[in-house]
Structure formats: C-alpha cells, structure tokens
Design goal:
The protein has helices at about 50-65, 80, 95-110, 110-120, 125-130, 200-210, 225-250, 270-285; strands spanning about 10-15, 20-25, 30-35, 40-45, 70, 90-95, 140, 145-150, 150-160, 165-170, 175-185, 215-220. It is α/β, with parallel strands linked by helices and about 290 residues long. The chain has a single domain (about 10-225), classed as Metallo-beta-lactamase, Chain A (4-Layer Sandwich).
Length: about 290
C-alpha cells in the first residue's frame, strides 16, 4: 500500500515592496508574513510545520539579501507557533500573556503524549510532527512595542480578543496591518477561546480604524482592505446586541437571532461555541452590556 502523504506546500506572495505573505491553503487558508526593513527581516507567525517555516525563511533571506532577526508571534494557537523551530536562532517575542499562555500549554496540551496522539491519529504527519519544537519567546511587551531600523518603523500592539494574548502589527511606511487571527478573512469569526475578551476584540478594531491602512494581512484568508475591519466590527457589534437581547428576554443561547454575515462558519462548532462563550461573557461582566 502506498504511503499517504500530506500537502504542506505554501504560496509566497509579495504584498508591498517590503512585505510578504506565506499562505498555506490546506489549513484554513493560514498565513504567516514578513517585513523586510533596511538591515533585517521581521517574520510574523511561523505556520504549522517547521519545513514550511524553513522554506519561507530561506525565500525571504534570498529575496531581500537580509537576515531574519525577529519572529513576532501574534498568539499561542498551534498553527501560528508550531513552525518556530526554524527560527530558534533569532529573537522571538510577543505579548506578556503570550508567554504565560504558552507555558501553560506546554504543561497541559503540548506534551509528548499529545504529539504522539497526533502522530497516531494522522500517521502521514509523523515526520513533520517530530520536527516541531516549542520555543518560549525571549522577550515580551505589555501593550505596545516598536522596532525602528534606519527610519523604517514597525509597531506592535497587544489587544487581546481572539485570544487573551492576541496582538497585531502595523507597518506605517507601506500602510500594512498584520492582524493575526483577530481577522480571518472570508470566515465567520473564530470566537471560541474561553479567555478571549470580546470587548477588547472590538476595541482593537476601533484602534485599527484610526490607522492609515491600505492592506490587511489576516491570520487566515486573502489580503483585504480597511473596509473589511469595518465590516467585521459591524457584525460583531450586531452579534453582541443580539446576545444581550436574548439574555434580557430570558431566552436560551440557541434562540439568539444571529445577524446575517457575509461568510459561513468554517466548522459546525463555531456558532454554538461562540454563543456559549458570549452568554457566559456578558452574564459574568454585566457592566459591559451597554
């Protein structure tokens, strides 16, 4: 019997003269990205597999004739960190809560047993999984961090939202926003983390809308424009209103009248889990209801 293989091919695209995106279509249209400054490169997120990250890094360093100096992790979900061993020699950083969440996951779900189960359930990934090495970031920031290289500036913001540790980056010289999974373009929002902050998520959009943005590189999906941020903020505001209305009327979460959105959930669990979380969130935080 022929050995089953898995497609891990990535597509590399230039977004602006100094920015790139690496897209893994076969995993929810996953993205990693990069900014080439004058003397070095900053990579944003690390894809699922180290081999993908290695390919991305080699392409960047050859294209720009510059070294990768930094890896910025937007949040702790595995599809954004599992490839990080290909960057073990660079400075890895993210929010303070990113480090906390990663350390917790190391003890709970990033165990040898868990990865062995992954290989057992998906034997075609065994060699790829064996290459995964989780590296706790070397440096962190509370709310904002800035990197400047001979006049080119990149700003990093911790907002929470999709996860407690969610952060995003902004490259003002070319008006590019790197949203992490705060935006998953073409998908119903992934509202599922029990520690996420829905109000913080919406506030992050409000802040993004104050920035001069031409291109948004999302955590998943195609590159979009600033209008997409407005569209998602509008939907999330409507979803909040619908949940609060149902709570005030004593209805069950299954009875929420979900507002229309342009995109369908990628998974069947998304809407039920989102409603479970939002009911808990707004019941617990009554001062956030209005």
């Amino acid at each position: 019997m022929a050995k089953t293989t898995i497609n891990i091919s990535i597509e590399l695209k230039e977004v602006t003269p100094h920015t790139m995106v690496a897209n893994y279509k076969d995993y929810f249209d996953l993205n990693a990205s990069a900014i080439a400054l004058n003397n070095f490169i900053i990579v944003i997120d690390a894809l699922v597999y180290p081999r993908q990250a290695k390919e991305f890094r080699e392409y960047l360093e050859q294209k720009y004739n510059l070294p990768v100096k930094f890896l910025f992790i937007t949040h702790f979900h595995g599809d954004h960190v599992y490839g990080m061993s290909s960057f073990k020699d660079v400075e890895i950083f993210g929010s303070v809560s990113l480090i906390k969440n990663m350390k917790e996951r190391m003890n709970k779900s990033w165990t040898k047993e868990a990865f062995d189960d992954w290989k057992k359930n998906e034997p075609e990934t065994a060699e790829l999984v064996d290459e995964i090495e989780i590296i706790i970031p070397h440096n962190s920031f509370e709310t904002k961090h800035v990197i400047v290289d001979k006049g080119l500036r990149v700003e990093f913001f911790h907002s929470g939202g999709h996860t407690e540790c969610s952060s995003y980056a902004y490259f003002p010289d070319e008006k590019v926003l790197f949203s992490g999974d705060l935006i998953a373009a073409g998908f119903w929002p992934f509202i599922s983390d029990p520690k996420e902050d829905f109000e913080g998520w919406m506030k992050s959009f409000e802040h993004m809308l104050t920035l001069d943005i031409k291109s948004v590189i999302p955590g998943h999906g195609p590159v979009v424009g600033k209008d997409y941020i407005k569209e998602q903020l509008t939907f999330m505001t409507q979803l909040k209103t619908a949940v609060l209305k149902a709570i005030s009327e004593g209805k069950a979460q299954e009875e929420v009248e979900i507002p229309t959105y342009s995109y369908e959930p990628a998974e069947d669990w998304q809407i039920p889990r989102a409603l479970e979380y939002l009911y808990y969130y707004y019941s617990k935080n009554k001062d956030l209801r209005y």
